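JOB MANIFEST
job_type = single_chain_structure
chain_count = 1
residues = 225
[input]
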Amino acid sequence: MKKYLILLIIASVVSSCKPKAIEVTTANVRDVLTQYGKENPENEVLIETDFGNIKLRLYDDTPLHRANFVKLIKDGNLDDAEFYRVVYEFMIQGGEPALQLPYRLPSEFSPKYFHKRGALSMARPVENNPNMESSAEQFFIIMGTRYTEEDLKMEMKYFGLNLTPQQKQTYLTEGGSMDLDQKFTVFGEVTEGIDVIDQIAKLQMQGTEAPVKKVPMKVTLTQSK
């Protein structure tokens, strides 16, 4: 009995020593994530799936989105994540479908980051969101499709985009989804495993944006600083 009580006490002490997740709210989101980002500078992510692994690099100059994604991983908010929305030649969207955190992320648009094939971007609510703030927990990776010269010019004009020559060439040769540019925050990109995106996107169930079967994922940080 005494041994049992000692074990309970030890377990309680260990539990109380675990760092508590920092609560982020609408009011403190900038301050908390800015500080969190300074203390947690990781920017390399591994996503393991049944179809293979995807490696991501998070951009340091989208600091709020990078810090938030690192925090999601460290807090365990992606422990039960899956790719639950897949659209062939467009994107695969993931996260924990039922998770709803009590804050949004201020947009961090940058003209040098665009929705090329392999871009990592954060989803966002479309309605009642005039500042185009990002979801705090749902993300997507672009599969995209290649543009023709004619489509490129037409969509640049329609969406009011001023792309660099290199960005134009990327859309022509590698593909992407230009209609999302400057509307959703790109905060990283695939560095390995782009073919895995294609395999998952092919699971799209006819007439829906759901995969024909669950696509669970394991998300971890691959470097510590």
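[summary]
Residues 2-16 have pLDDT under 50 and may be disordered.
Residues 2-17 form the longest helix (16 residues).
exit_status = 0
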